[in-house]
Every structure is written in structure tokens, then in C-alpha cells.
């Protein structure tokens, strides 16, 4: 079985495997624009044709440190660029340096081409508000359980609730903090959304 091996880190090219089967998704920054090859399809988007970029932090169970860039084109089309690559059935490898260099260089080339793309970071505002509302309800419920455990003298239960709340806050807190909706400029790419 031959494993996918990423090309050496370069600011002008990047590749990753989105799944175990199938070819790698390959991207290259050329003088003409962003060249891409995904699942047997390919294209070239001029830098001034790119209408939007959304950066986000998207951890998954196999890789807790995963970032994503969604690139949209005026007239339709969207491609996703991920900071991790599948290596085996049990291994998803980070490609932090290559992803960061490629995304920063993409922004630099778009700025040089005079792009007017919409640059956003994090989740959409409605999705983020729904996440905050869910967390508020969960906090109220956990506080109620903690108070109940303390009132009946169930110290082990109270300690469990506190431990679970601390672990949950640590795991989810980073996701919520990094994915706060915001706009940014070409020369100020959010560092929290780059590996």
C-alpha cells in the first residue's frame, strides 16, 4: 500500500488528501491565478475572480488541530482547503507550515492583483449565535446539577460535574474563541485561524 506523501512545503503549492481513497487535492499559485485539481476536475481562478475567503478552525475527532479555508469565486464555485491530510485509516497528519505559507501567499497575491474579495473569519453570525445560545443553556443546566449535588451532599457527583465542565470548557472554549465571526484585511490575516 502506497501512502500519500505531501510535497515539500512551498508557499506556491499545497496538496492534501481529503479522504483515504481518491487522489490528493492539489493547489498552485501561478502568475495567472489559483490553479486547482480536485477529484478529476481542475481549473484556474484568476486572483481578481476570487470573491470570498472564509478562514475557520474545524477540529475533528482524528485531528484536534485542523484549519479550513473556503475560497469562493464570483459567478459560482467554492473550494475548501484543509490543513490536514489522511495518511492511513488511523492517521490524519497536520500540514501546518505548508497550509499557513500557502494561505498567506494567496492573500498576498490577491492583494497585489487588486482583489475586492470579502475576507471573513470564523463561523457565520447566525451559527455562532446558535452555538452561544446552546452553551448558555448547557451552562444553566450544569449549574443546576452542581447546586443539586451540593444540596444533597453528593460531593463525588459535584466533583464529577466540575471536572466535566472544566474539560468541556477547555475543549469547546478554543473552538468558540477562534471561530468568533469577524472581517479582516489582506495584510491582517487572523493568526488564530492559521496553524
From TrEMBL:
UniProt KW Membrane keyword: yes
TM segment ranges: 128-149, 155-176
Keyword terms of this UniProt record: Membrane, Transmembrane, Transmembrane helix
Protein name stated in the entry: Bll5862 protein
Organism: Bradyrhizobium betae
Phylogenetic placement of the source organism: Bacteria, Pseudomonadati, Pseudomonadota, Alphaproteobacteria, Hyphomicrobiales
Amino acid at each position: 500500500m502506497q501512502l500519500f506523501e505531501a510535497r515539500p512545503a512551498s508557499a506556491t503549492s499545497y496538496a492534501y488528501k481529503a479522504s483515504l481513497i481518491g487522489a490528493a487535492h492539489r493547489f498552485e499559485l501561478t502568475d495567472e491565478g489559483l490553479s486547482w485539481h480536485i477529484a478529476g476536475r481542475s481549473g484556474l481562478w484568476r486572483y481578481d475572480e476570487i470573491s470570498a475567503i472564509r478562514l475557520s478552525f474545524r477540529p475533528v475527532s482524528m485531528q484536534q488541530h485542523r484549519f479550513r479555508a473556503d475560497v469562493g469565486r464570483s459567478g459560482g464555485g467554492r473550494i475548501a482547503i484543509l490543513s490536514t491530510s489522511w495518511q492511513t485509516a488511523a492517521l490524519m497528519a497536520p500540514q501546518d507550515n505548508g497550509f499557513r505559507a500557502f494561505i498567506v501567499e494567496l492573500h498576498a497575491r490577491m492583494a497585489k492583483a487588486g482583489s475586492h474579495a470579502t475576507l471573513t473569519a470564523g463561523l457565520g453570525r447566525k451559527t455562532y449565535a446558535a452555538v452561544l445560545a446552546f452553551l448558555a443553556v448547557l451552562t444553566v443546566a450544569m449549574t443546576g446539577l452542581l447546586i443539586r449535588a451540593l444540596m444533597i451532599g453528593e460531593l463525588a457527583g459535584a466533583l464529577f460535574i466540575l471536572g466535566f465542565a472544566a474539560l468541556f470548557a477547555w475543549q469547546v472554549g478554543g473552538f468558540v474563541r477562534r471561530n468568533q465571526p469577524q472581517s479582516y484585511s489582506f495584510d491582517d490575516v487572523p493568526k488564530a485561524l492559521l496553524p
